[in-house]
Every structure is written in C-alpha cells, then in structure tokens.
Design a protein that fits this description.
InterPro entries: Cyt_P450 (IPR001128), Cyt_P450_CS (IPR017972), Cyt_P450_E_grp-IV (IPR002403), Cyt_P450_sf (IPR036396). Keywords: Heme, Iron, Membrane, Metal-binding, Monooxygenase, Oxidoreductase, Transmembrane, Transmembrane helix. GO terms for molecular function: heme binding; iron ion binding; monooxygenase activity; oxidoreductase activity, acting on paired donors, with incorporation or reduction of molecular oxygen. Pfam families: p450. This protein is mainly α. The protein has a single domain, classed as Cytochrome p450 (Orthogonal Bundle). The protein has 14 helices and 7 strands. The strands form 3 sheets. It has a 3-stranded antiparallel beta sheet with strand order 1-7-6. Helix 2 crosses helix 3 and helix 2 runs parallel beside helix 14. It is globular, with a radius of gyration of 21 Å. The protein starts with 12 loop residues before the first helix and ends with a strand. Bound molecules: protoporphyrin IX containing FE. Protoporphyrin IX containing FE (HEM) binds next to helix 1, helix 8, strand 2 and helix 14. Protoporphyrin IX containing FE binds next to helix 1, helix 8, strand 2 and helix 14.
C-alpha cells in the first residue's frame, strides 16, 4: 500500500513518545480518570431525548457521543470535554477523515499527487463531516487551551497537573504534549496538534466502534441482559464505578471481547514496515520497505482457533478461562485475537478502552432496556467500509426504554 507510511525520515519523535505517554497516564493511573469518565458518561446519557419513556437513537451515534465526551476528558481536560461545539467538531472531523480517506482510495495512484487533496476536500464539502470546517473549530479550541497552559507555565503558577507521578489529578494528554514542546523543545506545536488529531482517532473512533458493536449485539440478544445486569449490580454495589469493579465484571468482559472478535474495526492488524531486509524462519526474505500485516479478521473467525467460529457466544471467553486458558481477558493479547495488535506496539490504550466500554455499558444496562426497533437484519458494517477498514452502519438504530 504505497504512501501509507511516511517515507524516508521514519516516524516523527512525537509519535514514538505517545505510546509511552499513554502507558504512563491512562494505563498506569487509570483509577485517576475513572470518576470524571463516569460522570461524563452519566452526563451524556442525560442528553437523550425521551418520549413516553423511550428514545430511538442511532446506535453508533450513541456510542460515539459517549466515548467522545468521556475520552476528551483524558485528552483535553474537563472544560473542553463539556464544550458541545468542540465535541461536535471532534466527531465530525474523525468521520470526515474516514470519508476523505475512503474517497482518496478511489483515485488512481498516479493521479493522487495532483488531485488527491482536491478530491478529498470535495468529498466532505457541504456535509456535516466537512473536515476543514471542523478542523478550524477544533484548532480554535486547541489554541485557546494552549494559551492557558502557556500563561500558567510562564506565570510561575504551574500546577503539578502535568506531572506523571506526583499529583492525584489525572494528566491532560494535550497539556503534557504541549509542555514538552514548550519547555523541552522536543517537537513543534504543529506536531503536537497532528499527534492530537491522530490520538483522537486512535482513542475515540476505535473505542466507539467497540461499544457500538456491543450495543447492537445486545439489542439482538436480550437473553444476555439478565446475567450482565446481575454482575453489574454486584460489582457496583460493592466497589462503585471503579477499576476493580470493571475488572470484576468478567461476563461483560467476555461479551465485549466476543463482540470485538466478530466485529473488529479493521480486518488487518499489527501493520509493520521492514526497515531492513528481514529473513523469516521459513526462508522467505522480506525486502526493506515491505509493508506487512496480520489478517486478524480471518484468524478471529477461523475454526483452527475457535469452536463454531461464526456463532456468537457472549460467554465464550469466560468458559475458556474456566477451562484454564490464559489470555482470555479483553485486554490480553494472543495470536488468535489481534484486535489490539501484538508485540511491542500493541495498543497501549486498551485498558482505558476496556474500562470506558464497561462503564458505559453498565450505565446503559442499569438504566434502560435496549430494543432493536426495525434493524434486526441490518449488517453492522456500513457501505462506507473500504480496504481493511470497517465503518459502522449509520442506519442501525436502537431504542432505549427507561426501566
Ligand atoms: C477498542 C478500542 C481500541 C482498539 C480496537 C485499538 C486498536 C489498536 C491497534 C490494532 C493498534 C496497533 C497495534 C499493533 O500495531 O500491534 C493500536 C495502537 C495504538 N493505540 Fe489503540 N485501540 C483502541 C483504543 C485506544 C485508546 C483508548 C488509546 C489511547 C488512550 C489508544 C492509543 C493507541 C496508540 C498510541 C497506539 C500506537 C502504539 C504504538 O505504536 O506503539 N488506542 N490500537
């Protein structure tokens, strides 16, 4: 896939630092983020518009709005995560990027340098996913926030918020990146913004897709509701909406993992580019510059790894664990489950994604019954899907009814 990775200079320094930053923040100090993420989920659910106790809503839109609000708390802090204009711009921009990339794939490689950008721009012009409009709005908010950080840093009133270890306050990821750019001159402001846009995609779109798949499957399979609710009640009543409570919800963990096994956001995983010729143990040599990836979508539906692989079994992974299998939690990596990749570059945000999906799922199940009004037969993947990427079916709607 030519042009997929930057040529020549390799990845910028900032992109090499971000995985470590994610591990040091939303993994190591996940508990610090939980109260605000929980509150963000509750606030988002309060915006649902009920008529006669029922609200009919786009399944992806529900998941996307919840994750955008709660994820933005970790990325840009509490004030912006409550700003509707910013949140709308984030959501529109991510979908704009997908549509633009989708359309650019249709342009022949030889014409890409000449008309690729223009075609991309035209693809979303005049729609609510207009990338340029939403990017402008987002940049306005980023600039304002950066000016606040700047003033704090140079007024001597610097709080310890950006310190990874000493404060109880969760680290705002944008703030950490910005401070590193200003104080240590490790990268430019433009690079910080570029990395934030990538992180929004890596965090918000993928996690929303996971939650979307789980909500759609649950609406189709009401028999899972009672055992899941029982488990939520038990864990929340003992520990509240905390990391240990999320860890204790093993049925939900298995249900979410089964949904991701069957509905991953991409059919390929663990993309790598050879930086030098690489001889494999079977004698094949991959030339420098070769792009390789693992066909995770096929592996996850293979009878070599899964009994009855195309059938949905929400408790498949708890049964495996009970049978002594290791690596059966949602966040575990294994060669037969590659939704979060594999090896040194496996997703460092998976603990956050797991906790966020569980909290959101728990709140929804606690408060509502979930019904599938007339979308039973609709596929989960929509017509915008392309290459290895799955894009949601925006027409799939669910009804949530107050209990
Ligand atoms: C269900 C949600 C998610 C899915 C399915 C997902 C999936 C992935 C995959 C497949 C990779 C590539 C792994 C590899 O190449 O081996 C990856 C990398 C990455 N993800 Fe996630 N991700 C999710 C959530 C998140 C979240 C919440 C964050 C941030 C908090 C995040 C940040 C990253 C970063 C920074 C990388 C690059 C890692 C590196 O290059 O070393 N992801 N993710």
């Amino acid at each position: 896939m030519p042009g997929y990775f930057p040529k020549g200079m390799g990845w910028p320094k900032i992109a090499k630092t971000t995985p470590g930053l994610i591990r040091a923040t939303v993994y190591k100090h996940l508990h610090r983020y939980m109260p605000s993420i929980n509150q963000a989920i509750i606030s988002q659910l309060q915006t649902l518009d009920f008529k006669d106790g029922e609200c009919n809503v786009g399944c992806f839109d529900l998941a996307y709005s919840i994750v955008a609000r709660s994820g933005s708390f970790a990325l840009v802090g509490s004030r912006l995560s409550r700003n509707e204009e910013y949140l709308k711009a984030v959501k529109d921009h991510i979908l704009g990027m997908i549509v633009t990339t989708r359309v650019q794939f249709l342009v022949p490689d030889c014409l890409k340098p000449y008309i690729g950008g223009l075609i991309g721009r035209l693809a979303t012009l005049g729609t609510s996913w207009d990338m340029h409009t939403s990017r402008k709005i987002m940049l306005k908010h980023f600039d304002a926030r950066a000016a606040e950080y700047h003033a704090e840093i140079f007024s001597g009133n610097r709080s310890s918020k950006s310190n990874l270890d000493e404060s109880d306050n969760p680290v705002e990821i944008f703030r950490w990146l910005y401070e590193s750019s200003v104080l240590r001159e490790r990268w430019t402001y433009a690079e910080v913004i570029g990395e934030m846009l990538l992180l929004q995609f890596a965090f918000i779109y993928t996690t929303s897709y996971g939650l979307y798949g789980a909500l759609a499957e649950l609406a189709r399979r009401p028999e899972y509701i009672a055992p899941l609710r029982e488990e939520i009640d038990l864990n929340f009543s003992r520990m509240g909406p905390t990391v240990p409570a999320c860890d204790g919800m093993v049925l939900m963990d298995s249900f979410l993992k089964e949904c991701q096994r069957l509905h991953p956001p991409s059919a390929l995983s663990a993309h790598r580019v050879c930086i030098s010729d690489l001889k494999l143990s079977n004698g094949i040599t991959l030339k420098q510059g070769s792009h390789v990836a693992v066909p995770s979508g096929i592996i996850q539906r293979s009878s070599e790894h899964y009994t009855n692989p195309d059938a949905f079994d929400g408790f498949r992974f708890v049964k495996r664990a009970a049978g002594g299998a290791k690596d059966s939690r949602l966040v575990d990596l294994s060669p037969d489950y590659l939704v979060f990749g594999m090896g040194a570059h496996a997703c460092p945000g998976r603990w956050m994604a797991s906790a966020l999906m569980k909290l959101a799922f728990a709140h929804i199940l606690n408060q509502y019954d979930i019904l599938l009004p007339n979308s039973t037969s609709l596929p989960l993947t929509g017509s915008l899907s392309f290459e290895e990427f799955y894009v949601p079916n925006f027409g799939l709607r669910i009804a949530v009814r107050r209990r």
